[in-house]
Amino acid sequence: MTETAAPPRRPIRELPDELVSQIAAGEVVERPASVVRELVDNALDAGATQVTVRLVAGGIRAIVVEDDGCGIPPEELPLALRRHATSKIRTLEELEGVSTMGFRGEALAAIASVSETAIVSRPADAAHAQRLDARSGELAPAARAQGTSIEVRELFFSTPARRKFLKSEATELAHAVEAVRRHALARPDVGFAVWHEGKLVEQWKRGSHEQRFADILGEDFLAQSRALDVQAGPMRLIGRVGLPEAARARADQQFCYVNGRFVRDKLVQHALRSAYEDVLHGQRQPVYVLFIDIDPTRVDVNVHPTKIEVRFRDSGEVYAAVRRAVTQALAAPGGAAPIVAAPAPITLPETPVAGSGFRFAGLPPTAHQSRLSLADLGALYAPEPRAPLPVETGATRLLAAEPSASVPAPTPEHDWPLGRALGQLAGVYILAENAQGLVVVDMHAAHERIVYERLKAAADQAALAAQPLLIPATFAATPTEVATAEARADELQALGLDLSALGPGRLAVRSRPAALPDADPVELARSVLRELTELAEADAGHLLTRARDELLATMACHGAVRANRRLTLEEMNALLRQMEATERADQCNHGRPTWRQVSMKELDALFLRGR
Fold it and tell me: Is the pLDDT of residue 466 over 50?
């Protein structure tokens, strides 16, 4: 092998300002969408109520962002193009509590270093606007109303190698529109318009949050999501979280904002995903728009050049608050939205329904409600205090041998949200009649959820039993796995896992959860260690509950009533009443629906009645 001579030593020198600016541009300006994002940030900081983005060739040839904000005085225009010149912060204390979208003073200088940039701006008290050419420094009078226009032409013309890495015009346009879309979701008080090649591509007028959600994400998002507004200590969490049945194959409708800034934070994403664990399994992606309002001093936004990542002072507090708020929003009885036609108003007596544990409370009006969940049907009834139901795992014990003792058979003068059982179909489905029409229930899926929720309630006060291994299972472990096993030994023990180090780079599994006698101890240990590592800064205690719940879900699946088992009408009605009183009763533990409503209107249409 030929030895390569060491390169000659080069002296340390300061980089020229132009090269420094282009290096900064490489961090801030990735593509036209990056320019759009930075310029819209500045427009919002200027107090704009209308922002217009004009693009040519997907933004590669030209980007113009116009706003009606406060404008920039003529004497400050040259400063706006200098690196680290900004009106947003002045001291370290202000940097530690940033409340504006921009703050570093790098964006305009970086953009100007890789494009032909000009600023046209007019403050409220100026007779006319001034136009500054970034390359020549020439300042000249111009015509425009109050506000600012930033013109960016021929992006990356001075760095042709970077321009070659841009995608097609259509792709770059899509990214630029998405950048504006993210701003528009967070600021319904501001109007936005996007033009491309002289044609209006997108427009969002000023309005309410609900209207902006509908305009951007569609009416279906409102119909298939639940509102969230929770005060959690120093945080306020508001927005909407999609029901499990609205989940998508791609994570393209997940929007999280911290103090109005769109972010991709792994901690928050993990908390949101964990909130869907009991109702959404596999690779399906939930949809949500979540706004986290928090004291700016408790979050560091200065950790990434594009400001898309943040760091919380108390990450565990944020993780727990997000997970708890989203879980509660989804956990009301009937957590999903089976498809039904909008029913006619239901008239029921305002008296308790004997033995059901519910009383009529009137159906609240719901906007954009073309789909209903068990929670909506259950809104006909308000829960009454009731003694805890006994925890049973066997189908025979859960479907009471004498159901009439605890759940009396329905009588004609009373109605329940899921109605009265009529019979079984193919040993799999329960058919019931309610005020809207026909209810079809997957009895195994529904009973599985009931058993699972009861098992969880019973296990909240107990740790998982461990099964010692006659011969410890050993495996080669990474330094991270060894460190996690040593640091989190108590939490692993609570999961029924006994891990100990055998030497450098090796771990031994001496026990596993007794409820999983057939599980591969090595794969189980690695999986739990990986989860513990990912949650190092989050709510580690949640992992214990999560792992326990996975075991209980397996037990519930085996303990639920099986298909092809014939049930009496009393047992069917008992199951329906239990569903009405169970959280997340619209999905089984695997995220599948447990029931469907077929309205009388739909049934009439099948038989051409009324034609």
Answer: yes
Kindly report the number of other CB atoms within 10 A of residue 55's CB atom.
24
DSSP string, 32-63: HHHHHHHHHHHHHHTT-SEEEEEEEGGGTSEE
pLDDT one-digit tens code per residue, 90-138 = 455 544 555 566 555 577 888 888 899 999 999 999 999 999 999 899 9
Which residue in 429, 431, 450 sits closest to 588, CA to CA? 450
Longest CA pairwise span in the chain (Å): 96
Classify 525 in phi/psi space as left (phi over 0), alpha (psi -120 to 50) or beta.
Answer: alpha
Has residue 315 got a pLDDT over 90? no
Position of tokens 């030593």? 9
Cα(453)–Cα(436) distance, integer angstroms: 28
C-beta separation of 329 from 303 below 8 A: no
CB atoms within 10 A of CB 321: 24
In whole angstroms, give the CA distance from residue 434 to residue 416.
7
Measure the CA–CA gap between 309 and 414, rounded to whole angstroms: 55
Q: Calculate the alpha carbon distances from 94 to 100, 261, 314 in Å.
A: 10, 17, 20
User: What percent of the chain is modeled with pLDDT above 90?
Assistant: 31
Distance of alpha carbon 505 from alpha carbon 478, whole angstroms: 6
